[in-house]
Input
Amino acid sequence: MNHPYKQLFFSLLLLLFATGISAQVSDAKKDKIDALRTAFIAKKVALTDQESRAFWPLYNEMNDKLDANLKTFRLQYNANTNYNFATDKEAQAYLNAELLMKQKEVEIYKEYYDKFQKIMPVKKVAALRRAEEEFKIELIKYIKQN
Output
């Protein structure tokens, strides 16, 4: 990661975590992480003003669909599930639901990558995917260190 980007990223992360941790501000933290992701992606993908105006509504729509897909799965198999399934049938149902969720996720990515290619060059669409992965890696590194 380039040095200026790294400074911006870690400054914003520091701001995020300096606010403290509480259940009451989880939405605020999510909003801050989303803002960090937006800044990170905007820098890495180098969107023009015209691309940016068309891209961000689509990107947010895609993330809303991905979140809804994951939420649907989690409602069915919430974090309290101990994964000690009583029967093979229950275990198979879990595996099928997980595969269906992952398949839907891939379908969403495919749909939106096609839409993104209509508003920006394919190289930028590929850079988007890399930027998303780099952001996750940097965020995880930061959390582990602190």
